[in-house]
Amino acid sequence: MTATEMGLSRPRRATRFVPGTGEEEQLFARHQQGDRVAREELVRRFMPLARSLARRYDRSSEPFEDLLQVASLGLLKALDRFDPALGHPFASFAVPTILGEMRRHFRDAGWSVHVPRGSQERALKVRDAQERLANVRGRAPTVQELAEYLELPQDEIIDALQAIQAYESLSLDAPRPGATDEATSYGDAMGQEDERYELVELDATVSAVLGRIPQRERQILRMRFVDDLTQTEIAERVGISQMQVSRLLRRSLDQLRALTDTKS
Amino acid sequence: MAGAPNVCLALSNQPENVLLVRETLSGMADTVGVDGVDLNDIRTAVTEACNNVVLHAYEGDEGPLQVELYLAPATVEVVVRDHGVGIRPHIRSEEEEALGIGLSIIQALAPRVEFKDVEGGGTEVRMEFSTPGTDSVPEVPANGFQAPVVPPSALSSTTGLAVAPSALAERVLPRVMCVLAARARFTTDRISDAELLADALVSRGFESSAHEHMTVSVEVGRREVALRLGPLGDGGAGRLIADSDAGIGQVVARLTDERRIDSDGRYETLELTMRDAR
User: Fold this and answer.
1) Number of helices (H) and strands (E), helices first, in chain A?
2) Alpha-carbon gap: A22 to the closest alpha carbon of chain B (Å)
3) CA of B181: how far to CAs of A159, A244, B38, in Å?
């Protein structure tokens, strides 16, 4: 069964576009004859449709104004190409045309290959806020607190937390915000103490494969799973952000698993 | 598409669950390498279908929202299902236009769309997307698949998820845990722990599972998340929390506050509770 058979894709406006009836039908007729006033009036009437479509992509970390501009361009194209004589409602023609325009925009903006820049910037903002709030409160913030602090929806904070996990650009050598002196990068802050740590508390297999994991990761694993420090406490001691600790722990566990898999 | 779904989500139609669906789609895209523009289309179309269930399926009441994902070579199929009154009877004049746009969006973004009535009441929207150039995942045999079941009384606080194969679970379960831990008002510290726990469970959970899928239900409370993993085979739960070959038991023990094994004589369930004491 198709949507049309179920009566689904026939919005109320549809009736207004049946040829021969309605004000908009006349506007379309005038527009086709090159009447610019009619065209402007049609743009005005259908701008809410373009706006509504742009809003649906709003969470995609592009500024809304940019998306609205692209959607408006799509609306203009739809108005110019629409043939009322075919008897279809304008919206059913305009929606795919506008979405096609937005799709082209995302493609041109490099969405296919990269994490878009807007989303990277947001992830960095969330990471910085997370550190700042942790310093103020002495504990890591919640998503709700981050959302309030940054005036962003919680969904976007969660998207950003996921993005942080994925970024190499936030990796070890990235300078830490608020870091003041010599021990600013992760590599510098680590290392000397490592040899003092023993791995005997972890079970035998893990200890055996741990030797093949870089020492800084090993140290963080130990702090979390042997010394039972929180990620925030580890972050403070090591001089990196809690999100970086999280990334390193997840990567280490992944490596551990790969190593034990090949062993067994 | 034949066979068992790769992901099956049992949710309530609360608006915040749309995010859970979107994160699941992102996890799927990470796994098989869906192009960012294509993912954007899939997320937008599926969001429309879910929002329809959120806003219209139960006329203001709460009810189930089921989402299934099927991965095939160069194709992703998503099914969004409700057991409500169906779309048609309850279209109101002022809602009609918004709904019309939603359906136009789905039709514009999904090359194939099918609407079906669900037996016993409800609507199913089946959307097929083409995802050229993606990797494929090993096929999951359909035999023995059981969709996760969440009793109606627990629906508002509990999320059911079945996922296979493990390559997909690795990307999906941590994202789902992140969303749910955030909902429980965990700090980012404990949210990261919840993701770590998901990593650890996925790395060994499939060996212990009684079926091809890894099945979990997650109950969100106040600063508390209770994850139930199962059905697991005999001794499967113990293998995950005792010192096991990969030290996963130690990881699980550190990350959780309570661990309990339930058995119905045939299958086991591992219940893990995480809290955020602050």
Assistant:
1) 12, 0
2) 17
3) 14, 19, 28
Considering only CB atoms, A253 lies closest to which of B186, B191, B196, namely: B196
Nearest 5°: the CA angle B7, B10, B11 is 125
- The predicted pLDDT at position B46 comes to 96
A242 in contact with B at a CB cutoff of 8 Å?
Answer: yes
Inspect the interface and report whether the beta carbons of B196 and A7 lie closer than 8 Å: no
Which among B115, B113, B116, B111 has a CA at the least distance from the CA of B127? B113
- A165 has a pLDDT exceeding 80: no
Question: How many domains, in total, are found in chain B?
Answer: 2
Chain B residues closer than 8 Å to A257 by CB: 203, 246
What is the number of H-type helices and E-type strands within chain B?
A: 7, 10
User: Is the pLDDT confidence value at A20 over 50?
Assistant: no
Token pair for B207: 């060996």
* Structure confidence by residue, pLDDT tens digits, B233-263: 888 888 888 655 556 777 888 899 999 999 9
Q: Looking at the predicted structure, is the pLDDT value of residue B19 above 60?
A: yes
CA nearest B116 in A: which residue?
A1
List the single residue in A with minimal CA-CA distance to B38. Answer: A112
CATH number for A116-170 (one of 3.40.50.11740, 3.40.47.10, 1.10.10.10, 2.40.440.10): it is 1.10.10.10
Query: Residue B72: which CATH number?
Result: 3.30.565.10
Task: Collect all residues of chain A within an 8 Å Cβ-Cβ radius of residue B115.
Answer: 1-3, 6, 8
Does residue A61 register a pLDDT over 80?
no
Asked if A101 and A70 touch (Cβ cutoff 8 Å), the reply is: yes
Q: Strands B123-130, B7-12: parallel, antiparallel or unpaired by DSSP?
A: unpaired
**CA distance between the termini of chain B:** 47
A12-108 maps to CATH 3.30.160.150:
no
The answer to whether position B164 is within a domain reads yes
CB spacing of A60 vs B97 below 8 angstroms: no
Query: Is any Cβ of chain B less than 8 angstroms from the Cβ of A116?
Result: yes
CATH topology of domain A188-264: Arc Repressor Mutant, subunit A (1.10.10)
Q: What is the mean pLDDT of residues A195-209?
A: 50
The mean pLDDT value for B128-145 works out to 88
Which is higher by pLDDT, B229 or A209?
B229
d(CA B10, CA B141): 20
Q: Which residue of B has its CA nearest to A227?
A: B254
Q: Tokens representing B41?
A: 């289309």
Closest CA of chain B from A107, distance in Å: 6
CA B142/CA B2 separation, integer angstroms? 8
**Residue B61 is part of which domain span?**
7-130
Nearest by CB: A230 against B48, B189, B199: B189
Whether B256 is covered by a domain: the verdict is: yes
Contacts of B48 in chain A (CB under 8 A): 56
Q: Which of B92, B104, B223 to mutate to test the interface with A (most CBs of A within 10 A)?
A: B104
Residue A254 banded pLDDT, cuts 50, 70, 90: confident
Instruction: Provide the shortest C-alpha distance from residue B4 to chain A (in Å).
Output: 23
pLDDT digits (tens, 9 = 90+) for A110-130: 776 556 667 778 888 998 999
Which among A91, A142, A205 has the least Cβ separation from residue B104? Answer: A91
Rounded to two decimals, the ipTM of the complex is 0.90
